[in-house]
C-alpha cells in the first residue's frame, strides 16, 4: 500500500510539474531588412531625425547595420555625413506566432563627431510582429529616443518617442 501511495504521488508530481511554466521561447528571428524610423519630439535640428536603416540580426541578437539614411534633405547640423549604427534586437515568441522583445539602437555621427542618437524600447516601448517560421513580418518597435552630444549645434540634444516599422 505504501508503494502504491508513493507511486501515486510521483505520478501526480509529473502531471503537475508542467503547470505554470511559460511556453515562451527566446529566438533569433530573421527580423532584419529595411526599417523606417519616425521620431517625434525634439526641436530645431533634433526635430528632423527620421531615418531608414537596414540591418540583420546576428545569433547573439546584435545587429549588423548596413546603412542609416536620414529622410530629410538636411538632418540638421547633427548628422552631416558618415553616420553609423549598432544595437541589439531580442525577440521572444509565445505559443502562437506573435512576438515581444527589446530593442536598443545607437546612431553615431561621423561629421560632426560626438553626437549620439539612442533608441530603446525601455520600460514603455514594445516590439511586436508575427513570426512566419523564423522570419519576423509586420514588425513594429516603439519606445523613446535621446540625442546627446551637442556637436555642430546647440540643438543637437533632445528626446522624444519613436516608431520603427519593418518594410
Q: Helices, strands, pairings?
A:
Blueprint: H1 2-16, E1 25-27, E2 33-41, E3 51-57, E4 63-70, E5 84-93, E6 99-108, E7 116-120, E8 126-132, E9 135-148, E10 158-166
Antiparallel strand pairs: 1-5, 2-3, 2-10, 3-4, 5-6, 6-7, 7-9, 8-9, 9-10
How would you characterize the overall build of this protein?
The protein is mainly beta and 167 residues long. The protein has one domain: Beta Barrel (Lipocalin), CATH 2.40.128. It is 9% helix and 49% strand. The chain has one helix at residues 2-16; strands spanning 25-27, 33-41, 51-57, 63-70, 84-93, 99-108, 116-120, 126-132, 135-148, 158-166. The N and C termini lie far apart (66 Å). Residues 1-26 have low confidence and may be disordered.
Give me the CATH fold name. Answer: Lipocalin
| Total count of domains | 1
Write down the overall mean pLDDT: 81
Rounded to an integer in angstroms, the radius of gyration calculated over CA atoms is 22 Å
What is the CATH architecture term?
Beta Barrel
State the end-to-end CA separation: 66 Å
Q: Note the main sheet.
A: 10 strands, antiparallel
SSE topology string: HEEEEEEEEEE
Q: Could you give the count of β-strands?
A: 10
Backbone shape: elongated
CATH classification class: Mainly Beta
Structural class: mainly beta
Total of DSSP H or I helical runs spanning 4+ residues: 1
Low-pLDDT runs: 1-26
The proportion of strand residues reads over 45%
Features:
167 residues; mainly beta; ten-stranded antiparallel sheet; 9% helix
In short:
This protein has 167 residues and is mostly beta strands.
Amino acid at each position: 500500500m505504501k508503494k502504491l501511495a508513493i507511486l501515486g504521488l510521483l505520478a501526480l508530481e509529473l502531471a503537475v510539474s508542467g503547470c505554470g511554466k511559460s511556453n515562451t521561447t527566446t529566438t533569433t528571428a530573421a527580423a532584419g531588412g529595411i526599417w523606417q524610423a519616425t521620431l517625434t519630439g525634439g526641436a530645431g535640428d533634433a526635430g528632423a531625425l527620421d531615418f531608414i536603416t537596414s540591418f540583420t540580426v546576428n545569433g547573439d541578437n546584435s545587429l549588423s547595420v548596413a546603412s542609416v539614411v536620414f529622410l530629410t534633405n538636411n538632418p540638421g547640423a547633427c548628422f552631416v555625413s558618415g553616420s553609423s549604427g549598432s544595437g541589439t534586437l531580442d525577440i521572444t515568441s509565445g505559443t502562437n506566432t506573435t512576438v515581444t522583445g527589446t530593442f536598443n539602437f545607437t546612431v553615431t555621427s561621423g561629421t560632426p563627431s560626438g553626437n549620439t542618437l539612442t533608441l530603446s524600447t525601455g520600460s514603455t516601448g514594445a516590439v511586436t510582429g508575427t513570426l512566419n517560421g523564423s522570419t519576423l513580418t509586420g514588425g513594429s518597435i516603439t519606445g523613446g529616443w535621446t540625442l546627446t552630444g551637442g556637436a555642430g549645434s546647440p540643438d543637437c540634444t533632445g528626446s522624444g518617442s519613436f516608431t520603427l516599422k519593418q518594410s
